[in-house]
Amino acid sequence: MPLIVGNLLTDPAANSFISLADADAYLGAEANAPWSAAAPQAKEAALINASRWLSASLVWCDTALSDADLARVGHVSARLAVEALTVDLWASEAVKDAKRYKAGSVEVEYQDTSRRGGAAGGKRFPWMFPMLRGLLCGTGVQRDVVRR
Predict the structure, then answer these.
(1) Do 5 and 19 touch, CB atoms closer than 8 A?
(2) CA atoms within 13 A on the CB side of 27
(3) In 5-117, which residue ranges form alpha helices assigned H by DSSP?
(4) pLDDT tens digit sequence for 17-69
(5) Which of 14, 46, 128, 133 is 20 to 30 Å apart from 65, CA to CA?
(6) Contact 74, 54 (CB under 8 A)
(7) How far apart are CA 112 and CA 97, in angstroms?
(8) How many CB atoms lie within 10 A of CB 59?
(9) What's the rounded Cα separation, in Å, for the pair 61 and 49?
(10) Residue 12: inside a domain
(11) Is residue 43 in a domain?
């Protein structure tokens, strides 16, 4: 599938926030080995995957992004595309089904793992939030409301 660069938040025809040439230039300056070693088709697929994940998984304050904002989102998409070469961004995050287990004198309590937003394929990407500061209204955290 060829890249159609644009704002995925408003343009239904777009499938990537950044072109392959711009992603190569941005990531090439860092001598990013996994990206440099990937075939062009794999890079394009990773850019599409990362861009679609970003548009669908985060809570955006405004969908009408300026050219400067689109460049920032494109850079985040390029960085996330490197991860998408080896990680399935759409895989479910591992969520523990219980908070506490106890067997005799041994007790294990898990932290809250139900957070969403900057996590994909079981990995967290905290670096993306400073890069997207001002564009996101939240991290996509969703909590269940329980009446007690």
Answers:
(1) yes
(2) 26
(3) 20-28, 33-37, 40-57, 67-84
(4) 999 999 999 998 887 888 999 999 999 999 999 999 999 888 899 889 999 99
(5) 46
(6) no
(7) 10
(8) 14
(9) 22
(10) no
(11) yes
Tokens representing 34 are: 């996994």
The whole domain housing 52 covers 20-91+117-138
Q: How far apart are CA 138 and CA 80, in angstroms?
A: 19
Rounded Cα distance between 98 and 134, Å, is 35
- Per the domain annotation, does 8 fall within a domain? no
The position carrying tokens 């996330």 is 80
Give φ, ψ of 37 to 5 degrees.
-80, -15
Amino acid 40 reads: P
Domain membership flag for residue 14: no
Return the beta strands (E) in 1-144 as ranges.
59-60, 100-103, 106-109, 119-120, 123-124, 136-138
Which are the contacts of 106, defined by CB distance < 8 A and separation ≥ 6? none
Give how many domains the chain has, as a whole number.
1
